[in-house]
Specification:
With about 200 residues, the chain is of the alpha+beta class. The protein has four helices and eight strands. It has helices at about 10-15, 35-50, 55-60, 105-110, and strands at about 25, 125, 130-135, 140-145, 150-155, 175, 180-185, 190-195. The strands form two sheets. The protein has a four-stranded antiparallel sheet with strand order 1-8-7-6. The radius of gyration is 18 Å and the shape is globular.
Length: about 200
């Protein structure tokens, strides 16, 4: 399996964009065909898998026991389970809407040549903040108590058109931390992996 390398001047151009000081842009591949895109995704998945089992990653617990939801499936086993018990068969009838958050995608719809796909992302819940990736690859931090947007990052990858294989469908962000640092990872439809400092 062969990958094309990204010319160094492209990488430097991305760094000079200064879209937001908290981000690092990491080009991962240039799609030359659907087959090479699938190969690149498989290689990228293996890379993330190796990273997930590194020593610094193992020092951190990624579970839902304290009301956190640090990964797409809740924990690294993808169990999609929370042991919290405030909402149960007896209390579900008492639930009310606390707030509604509007995606920044709504304002961008008129600019798109293709329509938006369904919003399927699972927000991550980390220390009272929800982190979400919209269908158009916009990352946002939302205060879980008030619903207020704390910050947003728009890589404008939708300008490259609708991705061929799955369109604008997305499952969300990935989260990593160790004893000293933390990152949110955003994979975009135009083949970039962006590391964001959530603070």
């Amino acid at each position: 399996m062969a990958f094309r390398t990204i010319p160094s001047e492209w990488v430097e151009k991305e760094r000079n964009l200064n879209l937001i000081p908290r981000c690092t842009v990491i080009p991962i591949m240039i799609r030359t065909s659907l087959r090479s895109a699938r190969s690149g995704l498989a290689a990228f998945s293996c890379l993330i898998g190796l990273f997930a089992f590194s020593g610094s990653f193992a020092q951190t617990t990624y579970d839902t026991s304290n009301g956190q939801w640090p990964s797409y499936g809740g924990d690294l086993a993808n169990s999609k389970y929370s042991p919290l018990d405030q909402i149960n068969r007896d209390t579900i009838k008492d639930l009310e809407i606390a707030w509604v958050w509007n995606s920044p995608d709504d304002a961008l719809k008129p600019l798109l040549k293709a329509g938006l796909d369904r919003f399927k992302a699972t927000p991550l819940m980390i220390d009272g903040v929800l982190y979400v990736r919209t269908s158009l690859n916009i990352a946002a931090a939302i205060d879980a108590e008030s619903g207020a947007t704390l910050w947003g990052f728009n890589p404008e990858s939708y300008k490259f058109g609708r991705p061929a294989s799955y369109g604008f469908t997305t499952r969300g962000l990935a989260y990593w931390k160790d004893a000293e640092d933390q990152r949110l990872f955003l994979a975009t439809g135009d083949s970039k992996l962006i590391a964001l400092d959530p603070k």
